[in-house]
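In response to reviewer comment 3 from the previous cycle, which asked for concrete evidence that the modeling workflow produces usable outputs, we include below a single protein chain processed end to end. The sequence was submitted unchanged, and the resulting structure tokens are shown without manual editing.
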Amino acid sequence: MINAGNYDWANSEIIRNNFSLPTELSGKKVSVPTKLFYFKYSMDSLNVINEMNEAGHRPATLAELLALGEIQPELQKQFQIIALNSITSHLVPVLSFYNSERIINLGWFGNGWQKKSRFLGVCK
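The workflow returned the following structure tokens.
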């Protein structure tokens, strides 16, 4: 999925052993209703998840984030997009744009995320 997204740089820790894809989804394309959550102030991960739950959504997984990056590659140039449902070693995947490059990196789950951040949610 990283190759399909044509990222300029990917964190080497984003590997199958750290972020597994459910076997029933491997090699399949599945449509899921998503929503980008935006807050007008800095939010920590747990508060974002609570807000998503109240809105009938759950945080997206790495696979769902990578699918968004493949389908809408220009979106991450506007703001970073975070998937809070894929956590490994307290790190979560983040799509961002830095030095004219589209990147998939990892951010600290416990962060107080910048107010310009977006969080990918999936309808429950």
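The helical segments are 45-54, 62-71. We consider this sufficient to address the reviewer's concern, and the full set will be provided in the supplementary archive.
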